[in-house]
Write a structure and sequence with these properties.
Largest sheet: 7 strands, parallel
Strand content: 15-25%
Shape: globular
Bound molecules: adenosine-5'-diphosphate, magnesium ion
Number of strands: 21
């Protein structure tokens, strides 16, 4: 039976060529598209339950007068009339300005209908309209569609009504009745009708609830099936090695592992030893010690006769990792090499030869690592560091580079769980949720830029004790468009201020990698006391003697970026400080600064960041791989997301899902995504 919903919209009565084009312009081609073109909001002229009304929203309520109105005058003309109104369970205060004549008409227990702004905190309504008696005929809830060009909202309503009338009967249920019953969800037919033509808010809420669950479940099913297919269709390496040799390595570390590190290492080892390919995300706050976890995993791969690759976003970070890993691996006779763009010509060829001949067992570098010119002898494990911006597609590409290679993605941007299971839904996730013992939390202050004198004094005090400081600026040089501090100016200002006493370095993205290297090296050897920099130091840089982080124009940075920057200090045993110089104009900006001063916990910050920014913006503009949901909102509907995720996991694991008739609707959906044939995931 051919699905009538797939018919073109031109089959709909009244849709001629012109209208067809108008509808195409908003992405509607088929009847199905039209039916699933949901309103983006509703105008509600009906009575509402105050419970559901947000602060400052306009509302219409009907209630009984509960107190004698009190009237006060300010001057001759201006007046304020207040009385108590009983609305359902609510006893609220109604305020009318400049309508003294209402006083005599309002008798106790009489019914009035009031429209105005609802102040949820004070429990008051400031009247815009007041009528005596019950609410007149209900105008109901009107759907508002997003339209373009000549297409009108009224027109959209008409086409959708027509489509509902003609085609609603052809709408098939996709969710099995077990799930419909379990969550008391509306059928797809009912929900479609309601979402376009709601009679009441509670009914609309139910329709929305159904689509939220459906969207989340379908998405999570896609992810879980992808995960299953990736696991089963790709033969993994079953790493085999002598446990005691790995133990020796762990015991050689200068510190005992934290419980979280040990747990995560176990999870990774299980993957590496299993016949499936590892596809794991490792989350851990800045300073939680992901590098040694990576080192241990790499050592395991090497012990089992393979090579490892560590891929990082910047060359500075690559150099730092190389330095610390060379030290760690030296006693174990492991050859660690660094591949950067500055290694050229003969040296490069020699290095690449060594990689090919297995003379190098661990190769560290940027993206260049997995490009064509690099051939490994036997690559067993790829680890990427600080790559939270990878989307699903990029992750797939990386995995396809090596043959059966295990992949571990590490990120220091703690990702709120709702986003993690969405953006990284097809992966396994490990979390280091504990910092090494003895870390002091960084004291963070938010100050106005006018307090510069005191900040200079503060830097001086720390530096005179032998410690070091970072000073971060958003720009490299002066800009006529933006009134923000630039690194060049701040550098010369500090140079003048500390002349003859302390050395001030300068670091920014326009330096060559040799220059950057020199600056960074002299800072990490404490030859430079104060480092002025743009955000190039944001990721991963580790100088434990640095205790002060000053960030200019801090309101220009997002919360997770500020947290990353702050994470450059607090890496040693001394008390560290972060000073945010900011004069934010917006409420969100102020809120961000406040949150920074309140918590050092990256997971708490990321949750707050998500609330402030919304899921679309969380990863920044570059992020791909975030799905767009029509109805569902990952932040708001996180409970539904958790439930749908769990259901998807269980379904995909169960035999019934793949065989039982009742899951056919879902199976058809999965087949259509092409995942089962190894096709591209959208
Ligand atoms: P990140 O997770 O931000 O990459 P790093 O791996 O750079 O963190 O570790 C931060 C610092 O903590 C490093 O100096 C590292 O040597 C140290 N470290 C890591 N694990 C431990 C531990 N278990 N106990 C004490 N210090 C540790
Ligand atoms: Mg790191």
């Amino acid at each position: 039976m051919k699905n009538r919903l797939a018919e073109p919209i031109s089959n709909l009565k009244g849709v001629g060529e012109e209208t067809e084009h108008l509808l195409n312009d908003v992405g509607i081609y088929t009847i199905d598209d039209l039916l699933e073109y949901f309103p983006y909001r509703y105008d509600d002229n009906s009575l509402k339950d105050l419970e559901e009304v947000k602060h400052d929203e306009r509302v219409t309520v009907e209630g009984k007068v509960h107190s004698e109105p009190a009237l006060t005058y300010f001057g001759k003309k201006r007046s304020r009339l207040t009385f108590r109104l009983l609305v359902g369970r609510y006893l609220l205060t109604v305020i009318c300005f400049n309508r003294p004549y209402f006083k005599n008409k309002l008798s106790i227990d009489s019914t009035v209908t009031v429209t105005g702004k609802w102040d949820k905190h004070r429990q008051t309504i400031t009247v815009q309209e007041l009528t005596f008696g019950p609410k007149q005929a209900l105008a109901g809830i009107e759907p508002i569609y997003s339209v373009k060009g000549k297409l009108t909202i009224k027109g959209m309503r008409k086409f959708i009504s027509l489509a509902l009338k003609e085609y609603l009967g052809d709408v098939n249920e996709i969710l099995p009745s077990v799930l419909l019953q379990k969550y008391k969800l509306q059928t797809r037919k009912d929900a479609l009708k309601t979402i376009h033509h709601p009679n009441r808010q509670d009914e609309l809420k139910q329709a929305r609830r159904r689509f939220v669950y459906e969207e989340f479940l379908l998405f999570q099913l896609k992810m879980q099936v992808l995960r299953k297919v990736q696991r089963e269709q790709s033969k993994g390496i079953m790493h085999e090695f002598a446990e005691n040799r790995l133990e020796q390595f762990i015991e050689s570390l200068p510190f005992p592992l934290t419980n979280a590190q040990s747990r995560v290492i176990n999870e990774i080892m299980m993957d590496m030893k299993s016949p499936f390919r590892m596809n794991r995300l490792l989350q851990g706050d800045v300073g939680s010690g992901k590098t040694v976890v990576a080192a241990i995993a790499i050592y395991a791969a090497i012990l089992s006769g393979y090579q490892g690759a560590l891929m990082v976003p910047t060359e500075i970070l690559a150099e730092q990792h190389a330095e610390s890993l060379v030290t760690l691996f030296e006693p174990f006779n492991i050859n660690v090499a660094l591949l950067t763009s500055s290694i050229k010509g003969k040296r490069r060829r020699e290095l690449l030869d060594k990689v090919k001949n297995n003379e190098v067992q661990l190769l560290i570098g940027t993206h260049a690592l997995i490009q064509d010119e690099v051939n490994f002898h036997k690559l067993g494990l790829v680890i990427t560091d600080e790559q939270h911006r990878f989307g699903v597609e990029q992750r797939r590409m990386l995995r396809e580079k090596g043959e059966n290679t295990d992949v571990l993605f590490m990120t220091a941007t703690p990702i709120p769980r709702t986003l993690a299971i969405t953006a990284f839904g097809e992966m396994d996730v490990s979390v280091i949720d504990e910092l090494p013992a003895g870390r002091k939390s960084i004291e963070t202050y938010w100050v106005k830029p006018t307090m510069l004198e005191r900040i200079l004094a503060f830097i001086e005090k720390e530096v005179s004790k032998g410690r070091q400081a970072y000073v971060i600026c958003p720009l490299i040089e002066e800009s006529d468009k933006l009134d923000v501090q630039n690194a060049l100016d701040v550098h010369s200002m500090l140079n003048i201020n500390f002349q003859g006493r302390y050395k001030v370095g300068l670091m920014h993205g326009r330096l060559s990698s040799d220059e950057k290297d020199t600056v960074m090296r002299s800072f990490s050897q404490n030859e430079v006391n104060i480092l002025v920099s743009t955000t190039v130091v944001e990721v991963g840089v580790n100088v434990p003697n640095a205790t002060t982080m000053v960030i200019y124009d801090a309101e220009r940075f997002g919360l997770s970026q500020l947290h990353q920057l702050r994470g450059r200090v607090g890496r040693g045993s001394e008390q560290s400080y972060c000073i945010l110089l900011a004069d934010p104009k917006s409420e969100t900006g102020k809120e961000r600064m406040k949150i920074m001063t309140e918590t050092n916990d990256g997971f708490v910050l990321s949750e707050r960041d998500l609330e402030l920014r919304g899921p679309g913006d969380f990863f920044g503009k570059k992020q791909s791989g975030m799905p767009i949901f029509k109805v569902a909102d990952m932040v708001h509907d996180y409970r539904a997301l958790e439930v749908a995720r769990q259901d998807a996991v269980e379904l995909v694991r169960s035999q019934a899902f793949w065989e039982d008739e009742k899951y056919e609707g879902l199976r058809i959906f999965i087949t259509e995504t092409g995942i089962l044939d190894g096709e591209k995931l959208d």
